[in-house]
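Thread: "does anyone have the structure for this chain?"

Original post by V.I.:
We have the sequence but no experimental structure in hand. Need at least a predicted one for the grant figures.
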Amino acid sequence: MTTSLSLTRSGSGEPLLLMHGLGSSRRDFTAVLPELCANFDVINVDLPGIGGSPHLGQRPTVRTITDAVERMLDEEGVGRVHVLGNSLGARVALELAMRGRALSVVAIAPSGLNVPQERVFQGIGMGMARFVMRTAEPLIASLSRSAVGRTALLAPLKARPWSTSPEEAAGAREGFAESRDFLRTVLWALMLDVPRGLDRIECPVTLVQGAADWVASGQTVRYLPLIPGARFSPLLMAGHAPQSDRPTTIARLVQETVGRTETVPAAA
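Reply from O.Q.:
Generated one for you, tokens below.
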């Protein structure tokens, strides 16, 4: 089955995979990308059904999305990889770690451990955002050209939406308005997903959540006792997708987490 995902690859060094959340695209890493490319061979990918990536023929669960990401890594000739993921992308990053495919993981606001009431709230919120973005799609290009317009578009996800770029606004258009299989992904990969086997993770993991993140609620810290050796780092003045809120801090957390791989025994 052909499931080649759309990606950009830049920089040099050890491979670092970037995975965005649902409601965005690989453009969401625009602000942090230059700092990461200075130290890593960065693979920035559109998840299935986003941007130039085809949607999955089967149910878009975390497992099938991770399968597609693994096939992409095989196509790129990459074995184990450092991973930086946000929201659904962070959940997929942890799934890669469970499969032994990750060298290290920085997981920003990973989905998966919210309680039923939070799942309903998140599902309704994502559905409303989809409706609003599809309705406003003809205006997104013009809105993205001003700080005020970008603030209106990205305020639910960013603590400093006025500082974002037109690229990030375009990512929201791709992730919400133009996403294929959006509602099925919300159902199968967000609302019905329950992580299992987290105790099998052997690589260093840093869990990150913005202090101004109302989307993920308190679920990020719930991963902490379930993943051996995991660390938690809160981000002040940062939202659910804080790549442009705190790019330098995020790049530093990646470097620090990669540095911890020296103390972890290599997988057999």
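V.I.: this helps a lot. The two ends are 29 Å apart (CA to CA).
O.Q.: and Strands lie at 7-11, 14-19, 40-45, 81-86, 102-108, 205-210, 231-235.
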